[in-house]
Structure formats: structure tokens, C-alpha cells
Amino acid sequence: MSPAVKYTLGRIGLFVVVALALWPVEANLFLKLMLAVAFSAALAFFLLRGWRDEMAQQLAGAAERRRAEKERLRAALAGDDRPASADEPGDRPDTVR
């Protein structure tokens, strides 16, 4: 299961548990739901740290793959066989010497 799905389901589950715990309390429904949001967010910060870190690593990896693919496509469009780096400014054909 994807880390993002696990984390999202965990957050929803915590909200439901807290909302059900607050259900018998004599208060406005809107107030109960707002308290459930606040308490479940605080609990998720501590209880779901591992899943949150897994999700962050997955998203960082995906962003890195997109960045590498973007560089590869730009290099291909420029006619290079490999992506140009900032260390080699004169290797690109459009550079004036």
C-alpha cells in the first residue's frame, strides 16, 4: 500500500475515533467536529510520524525522478547526448565563445 494512502487513512481513522469519543459530550455538533479535527491533528503529529516520513520520502523520490527526466528531455531537445551541467559552460552548442 502506498505510504500516502496509509497516512491519509490513518488521519481519517484518527478523526473518526476522536469524533466518536466526543459524540456523547453535550455540545454543538460543529464544536464537536472542530475539536475532533484539532485533537486528531495533534495525535497524528505524534502517532503517525513514521507513516508521514515514509510519505515524505516517497514524494521526494518522485520529485527527483521528475527533475531528472525534465533535464534529460531538455538535453535531448538541445541536441546533447547528456544533460548539461553548470561546471561545463562551453560544452553546449548554443554557447558563444
From TrEMBL:
Region described as Disordered: spans on this chain: 76-97
Pfam families: DUF4229
Annotated TM spans: 7-23, 29-48
Record keywords, A-Z: Membrane, Transmembrane, Transmembrane helix
Species of provenance: Plantactinospora solaniradicis
Protein name: DUF4229 domain-containing protein
